[in-house]
Write a structure and sequence with these properties.
2 domains; Rossmann fold; Nucleotidyltransferase, domain 5; alpha/beta; four-stranded parallel β-sheet; 328 residues; six-stranded mixed β-sheet; 33% helix; single chain; 11 helices
Length: 328
């Protein structure tokens, strides 16, 4: 059994640089946009070697329509008596404090959590995150795709209630432990990424969270907007050239976005960066791919894509391509 081998192997020489504890997290939300809210959250706290210490779960009143009830099963009636996020923020923070946040597509869970804390004018005590999709790629696991159900099946973990935050967090904790031990056995560097809190959340015109009225570079951000507090690091991989339709993306490719997206633009860009892609703010002959839902628009990026012959895909196709990005 993989778990037995990895446990025995790692017991002798556990990497000293590995974190001392993890918080395996799952949140269910009203949707994917920047103004969507958390409706439930679960945390499994694990020790340095992935052993479960305890778990916690709560529903959260989003103070709005609950969104895709057919997915998470939480109706307005169920959530009516649930606590508001500020009411559970302290307990949630205690579960995260000093630990690496682990999630499946971690950039999404972190973005939703960071926004909720920014709304509450607080800061989540998380400084690093680890995505189990990225870890499974580092391990070279033979998965048909990178859905949680596929990862669970690979490790023989039974899902009892998909899209219930507590059960999804349990499943993730159970697949993370053997993954962590396999990484330790092979001496792999864990794919840890920095978590920086949001510097702004504006529900109206009043400046908040470090926003300076009339300045600070926040112009154009209206009600319910948010802004990440970091400059993206340089992509560590060389540009392999243009995307070829029918083939996967490759780390180092330069990706540009144009026009509106259904998923928050910052979230899409974070997912691209997490996959090892270079997010470009402009389009040139070096751009590998343009992502736009309106290829017939007259934006300068679309016009340049036509001029340079840059491949174009829509947001949905790009989301699928992100699931299997070739290593550099």
């Amino acid at each position: 059994m993989l778990e037995d081998r990895t446990t025995a192997a790692s017991a002798a020489s556990w990497p000293a640089a590995y974190p001392q504890g993890y918080a395996v997290v799952d949140v269910e939300t009203t949707g994917l946009a920047r103004d969507d809210r958390i409706v439930s959250a679960a945390v499994y706290r694990l020790d340095a070697r992935g052993e479960v210490e305890d778990h916690w779960y709560t529903t959260v009143n989003p103070e709005r329509d609950p969104g895709p009830v057919w997915i998470h099963g939480l109706t307005s009636e169920v959530l009516e008596g649930a606590p508001l996020f500020p009411d559970i923020a302290e307990e949630f923070a205690a579960r995260l404090d000093g630990r690496v946040l682990v999630a499946h597509n971690a950039v999404f869970d972190w973005s939703m959590i960071a926004r909720e804390y920014a709304r509450a004018e607080r800061e989540a005590p998380v400084r690093q995150r680890l995505c189990t999709i990225a870890l499974s790629k580092e391990l070279g696991l033979p998965l048909a795709n990178h859905k949680l159900e596929s990862l669970a099946a690979h490790f023989g973990v039974v899902q009892r209630h998909a899209h219930h935050a507590l059960d999804d967090a349990r499943v993730l904790a159970e697949v993370f432990r053997p993954s962590l031990h396999a990484a330790a056995r092979d001496g792999l560097r864990l794919p840890l990424l920095e978590c920086r809190p949001l510097t702004e959340w504006a529900d109206g015109s009043a400046p908040r969270m470090g926003q300076q009225s009339g300045g600070g570079g926040y112009g154009g951000y209206g009600p319910g907007s948010w802004r990440p507090s970091r400059k993206r690091p340089a992509c560590p991989y060389p540009n392999p050239g243009r995307y070829e339709p029918g083939r996967p993306l490759k780390q180092g490719m330069r990706i540009a976005f144009s026009g509106d997206t259904s998923v928050d633009r910052e979230l899409l860009e974070d997912r691209a960066v997490d996959a090892g892609l270079h997010v470009a703010t402009s389009l040139s002959r070096l751009t590998s791919l343009l992502v736009t839902n309106d290829p017939d628009s007259g934006t300068s990026k679309v016009a340049k894509a036509r001029q340079f012959g840059t491949p174009v895909v829509d947001e949905a196709a790009f989301g699928q391509l992100l699931l299997d990005v070739e290593p550099a």
